[in-house]
Specification:
By secondary structure, the chain is of the alpha+beta class. It is built from 7 helices and 5 strands. Strands 2-1-5-4-3 form a 5-stranded antiparallel beta sheet, sandwiched between helices. Helix 3 packs across helix 6, helix 5 packs across helix 7 and helix 6 crosses helix 7. The chain is globular.
Length: 162
């Protein structure tokens, strides 16, 4: 299970769930290449923890705005198969807001606010440096992704690939 975020030029967007699904059917070599160019990001199954880092509270409980748009924000587009999760679409204006928020965000402040909840699943008391490092790297990657996407004037399509 991976949560994908993909930059898409607004002129290329189609109002079709089938089209959205095709966006995420590329093989891993192509995905890795896009990640390297900050045109796509992939979060592992801990994506809800990344949401918690930014919003400070569990998903769907935070007010709308850039902190909640980073991971799970966006207008839902439902696939034809109701057993699949919806796609999420962020407009270019929302992407610009997220990019500005991430650029201004202080990771140390984000970490201090969410630290207790993010470390709760780890039994080892010495796990904090490694866990903090993983979240810091994810923050850097998401900041670069959204900055590049905003610079290009693109939208973002997200989907939980199961």
């Amino acid at each position: 299970m991976y949560f994908h975020l993909r930059a898409v030029p607004p002129s290329a967007l189609r109002n079709s769930a089938t089209w959205f699904q095709r966006l995420f059917e590329d093989d891993w070599d192509i995905v890795r290449e896009r990640i390297g160019r900050h045109r796509e990001e992939v979060l592992d199954r801990q994506y809800l923890d990344v949401e918690l880092l930014y919003s400070g509270i569990p998903p769907n409980h935070a007010p709308d705005g850039p902190p909640t748009d980073v991971v799970l924000g966006g207008r839902p587009v439902f696939p034809p198969n109701p057993s699949l999760p919806p796609f999420l679409l962020l407009t270019t204006a929302q992407v610009t807001g997220v990019a500005g928020y991430l650029k201004a965000a202080d990771f140390d402040d984000l970490w201090r606010r969410a630290r207790g909840k993010l470390l709760r699943p780890y039994i080892a008391t010495d796990a904090e440096p490694e866990v903090r490092g993983l979240f810091a790297a994810t923050h850097r990657d998401l900041t670069a992704f959204y900055a590049q996407t905003a610079e290009y004037g693109d939208a973002v399509v997200k989907w939980l690939v199961i």
